[in-house]
Amino acid sequence: MEVYALVGASGTGKSHRALVVAHEYGIGTIIDDGLLIQANKIVAGSSAKKEPSKIMAVRRAIFMDSKHANEVATAIELKKPNKILILGTSVNMIEKIIEALRLPPVSKIIHIEEIATKAEIAKAKELRTKEGKHVIPLPTIEVRQQFPGFLVDPLDIFFKKQPRMPIRKLGEKSIVRPAFSYFGKLFISDATIAAIASMVARETPGITSTGQISIKNANDKETGLTVVMDVSVKYGLSIWTVVINVQHNVKQKVEFMTGLNVKEVNVEVKRLSLD
């Protein structure tokens, strides 16, 4: 395994240019702010941007928590990437991450000044300081599920190898505001989630009506919320099949519409309808 490092001070645009560096060196796996990212997916880890303070964010970013470090190290062993890119504010930070995750020494160190102009770095610092915006090299929906309430705006990144070649879309980057920037939070009431679940259930073939719906652990961003609902099913249909479809549809739509993680959808069939 070859280990590459992208080094630059906080707010200079490392995460923003991570995909550019990864593309140039043929790297498919990135470690950024406590997350292990591969093929535009979060494979393991928990982001430092979800921590309530900067001190806790730093501890998360350098994998000081043994459980967090073991989770990511185990995922790396299973995925067996040929190359991996680590983002850090200093060479010392990179070395701490390598030690925590039991990785080989760095093969190449790339400094942000080598791939970004002074004007670009200044602009990145301005966005960080004035607007508290951070970038994660992930598709929007992935970030939305990881950071409910903190998504700011998606960015599409395009590259051309030659002027006449068609544009190739390599990936997307999403801007988020971390918890410790204190720019406000988004709250979605249990009643709203229940209303969405009821609507989706009633649109599922075989469901004639819904009854009581309750939402549990809606504020638990780590484990996700649980939807508990009772329904009426049309007589003559496979109850098992209808319920499975309801669970799938409710989970998918609630996550898409709210950005919240849905851990469970528990459905109880209380009535059979002859209509």
Annotation keywords:
Rossmann fold; three-stranded antiparallel beta sheet; alpha/beta; elongated; 12 strands; 2 domains; Alpha-Beta Plaits; six-stranded mixed beta sheet; 275 residues
Question: How would you describe this structure to a colleague?
Answer:
This protein has 275 residues and is of the alpha/beta class. It folds into two domains: 2-181, Rossmann fold; 190-273, Alpha-Beta Plaits (2-Layer Sandwich), CATH 3.30.70.1350. The chain is built from nine helices and twelve strands. Strands 4-3-2-5-1-6 form a six-stranded mixed sheet, sandwiched between helices.
Which SSEs are present, and which pair or pack?
Blueprint: E1 2-7, H1 14-25, E2 29-32, E3 35-38, E4 41-45, H2 54-61, H3 66-79, E5 83-88, H4 91-101, E6 106-111, H5 112-115, H6 118-131, E7 134-136, H7 140-146, E8 151-159, E9 168-176, H8 190-202, E10 207-216, E11 225-234, H9 239-258, E12 262-273
Parallel strand pairs: 1-5, 1-6, 2-5, 11-12
Antiparallel strand pairs: 2-3, 3-4, 7-9, 8-9, 10-11
